[in-house]
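step=encode ok
step=design start
structure_in=
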């Protein structure tokens, strides 16, 4: 990710912040519409889970200038996801639902350059998580 992309992700995250609860709800609705079989992997309460997801995204956005510092944490997160039953191919569906959610909540602020920046950001996070899961195997 270049510095312009990092700035775009940071700025759009700030815009999303007041609406994170609504974003989380939209996100899971969309995710389970896209792949209903994923629903059964989520055993806990979804409202709480949405908060954990958004907190983790916020942490990663906060560390955008030093993502290497959070790589070990992302490896661990990926290993836990393996244990939840999450497989590498699920990360694509998750990305589609996340992008759709950002588009919905941010509207015109989610223009193509912002979308590309989020694509690069998600790619970095998911790569680290999948790497962590694969190393554990
Ligand atoms: C960038 C990608 C992702 C991030 C940042 C993320 C973040 C999180 C966080 C913070 C938790 C809380 C539990 C923990 O820390 O271990 C969690 C749980 C979980 N995530 Fe993810 N996740 C991502 C991708 C995915 C994908 C691709 C799936 C596949 C459907 C998924 C399914 C789950 C499930 C099933 C749980 C456990 C929920 C429960 O116990 O009810 N996540 N995730």
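sequence_out=
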């Amino acid at each position: 990710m270049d510095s312009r992309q990092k700035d775009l992700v940071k700025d759009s995250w700030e815009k999303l912040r007041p609406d994170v609860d609504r974003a989380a709800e939209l996100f899971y609705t969309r995710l389970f519409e896209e792949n209903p079989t994923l629903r059964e992997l989520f055993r806990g309460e979804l409202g709480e889970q949405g908060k954990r997801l958004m907190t983790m995204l916020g942490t990663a956005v906060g560390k955008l200038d030093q993502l290497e510092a959070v790589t070990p944490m992302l490896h661990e997160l990926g290993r836990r996801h393996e244990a939840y039953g999450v497989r590498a191919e699920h990360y694509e569906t998750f990305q589609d639902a996340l992008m759709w959610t950002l588009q919905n909540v941010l509207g015109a602020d989610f223009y193509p350059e912002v979308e590309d920046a989020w694509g690069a950001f998600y790619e970095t996070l998911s790569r680290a998580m999948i790497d962590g899961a694969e190393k554990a195997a």
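step=design ok
step=annotate ok -> The mean pLDDT is 96.
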